Amino acid sequence: MRRQYVRVERAADGGHAAGCEECREARYREVAAQYGWTLTGPAETGRVGYRSYRHECGQAQDVLVGNMSHGDVDCARCGQSWTSKPSQIYLFRIGLPTGPVLKLGYSSNPGRRLRQQLGIARDVPTRILRTLEVPTGHRAVCLEKSAHAEMRRLHPDWIVPKMEYGDAINTRTEIYRPDAESALCAILDRIERDLTY
Questions:
Q1: pLDDT category, 15, cuts 50, 70, 90?
Q2: Which range of residues forms the domain containing residue 65?
Q3: Do 93 and 120 touch, CB atoms closer than 8 A?
């Protein structure tokens, strides 16, 4: 509560840009228009700090408001960055000295991701268990985030905390116990069916 009083005091003194929700959304619309986007409403995913936008080509996607404010956004349909290029969702097995773990993620090049970007030591046995082709990076990241949300909701006990694998894998999340393999494969099966239709 103390923080709110301070904000109100600063606003009264002209030292804080407090404003109403309508004005804020109007600013978001103006900024989006500068980059060829139209603000269409709240984020489809419900993620805090995101809004749903439609690009001039017709593509609709959720974008972090901060990224839109700097023009740091690419259209998943007609853009030229990773968001519009083909990607893959992968499932890795990593044989750490403390025991095997699974990693679910996305990348345009899973093999490179496994060895270079995750920083896994060369003597650690690894295996790519499965990959799924996804038409765009944007779609891949959305599907991957949905899969992790499902695992957090239904199987939180299969998530390996960072302190257990430490610096052995260059990531803070998305690592699962071996028991999670059947659940992860079931999610991948469902994604694959959805991508086929």
A1: low
A2: 2-69
A3: no
